[in-house]
Structure formats: structure tokens, C-alpha cells
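Sat 14:20. Reprocessing the chain from the morning session after the first attempt stalled halfway. Input below, unchanged.
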Amino acid sequence: MEYADIDQVSAADGLRLVLVRGFPSPWGQAAKAMMEFKGLEFMAGAQQAGGKNPELVAWAGTNSGPVVAWNDEAPLNRWDDILMLLERLAPDKPLIPEDPAARAESLGLAQLICGQLGFGWNIRLVGTHDAVQAGKPVGYLGEKYGYNETDGPLALERVLRLMNHLASLLDGQTSRGSAYLLGDSVTAPDFYWAAFSNLVQIQSAEECPLDAQIRTRFERQHPVLAEALPPSLIEHRDHIMRNFFKIPMEL
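Finished this time. C-alpha cells:
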């Protein structure tokens, strides 16, 4: 994928997406896949992982991808703000149901995957807690995700509970003939789980072509998570990836 300079991205009109270059960052990859599903054209820019990215900070007020912007509206960084923008720009291919009960369930499930103290958040805290228990400092990711003595020890159990909840949803959906987490068509939580699943079981090198050192980081997994991951969640990931993401993943 071609990346424009951040100065070009910030000065452009239309839809723009800044991704963490070289990493399968799930928040960004889900946003990208949903844009492509909706047929939205966008200009891509790159955040350099671990870099200061001064141009991005000056424009978007954050050094964290993804960043999404539309015309002269303020750049967005939160997953839910990005999702609502995409729904507004392409309402003909909705990823959130209109029915209030189904909408609440869809957004609630997305929050459990993407949001503060959700799946991705707690995966970061699991790694940080392991490091702290081994006598190492909290580090960059621990500081970014607010590691503390309350949430750190709870992170692993929270991840396990959510994976079991997702597997239970899929079991119910499969029994009624649906291949999706909710309803009878793809919704935002399907995109989010597919992208976030790489935090517990990375896709193959052919599907997700990573630098060898980066791949090693993703393959180094907490043994309890590796053992407890329900196979149905990876089967769902592979189905969604094959049908709704660009494979190999563009990093």
C-alpha cells in the first residue's frame, strides 16, 4: 500500500486514514476493512511505531493510530467516532443495526472488543502485568493503557471471559444458520473481532506479512490464552478475513 506524507494527508480533502505502519494494529485494520467494505475511497498515511511523529501530533493531537479525517472536520482517533463517521458516509452498507435493541447489542459488543478495558486494552495489560511480575518496568504500552494495581491482575480473566462470551454467541448463531456474531449479515463486531484476534493468534505469514522481529512479538503469547482460545473464534476470524478484508493484509 502506498503511504502519503502526513503533511499531504492533513492538507487533503476527502477521507484519510493513518495506520501504524508495519503492524497489524487491530483498530486501524478494522477501520480500513470497513472503509473498503463500504466502498469508500481514502488516502493513507503512516504512523511510525515508537516514533515521535511530530506532524501527526501537530495535526491530530495524538501519536496513536488509527487517525481518520473527513474533509475539514476534526481528525478522529477513537474507534466509536470513526465507526459513526463511516456509517454517516456510507449508510447504504450499514454495520450497525437500526433496531434499537440490536443496535445496543452491536455497539456494546464492539465496546467489549475495542473500548477502554475491552479485549484489546486488556491484552496489553496482560503483557504488562507479566512484565511487572517479573520485576520489569511498566514500559510504554503499560503507560499508554493505564496499567495499575487493580486492572493489571484482572486483565487475563477479563480476556478469557470475553473470548468465552464471543464463542457462546457464535455457537448460538451457528445453530440458527448464521456465520456472524450478530444477526444474519456482517456487522462492526465481526470486523473488530477478526482484526483483534491477531492479538491472541496471529495469521500466517502469507496472510499477514510481518517483519520477522515483529512477528516474533505477536507469536510470543501468554500460555493460558493460547490454551483457552476457542477454535470457533479463529474459524470465524478466517471466514471474515477471507470475505471482507484484503488478504494479504496491507501493512
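DSSP finds twelve helices and three strands in the chain.
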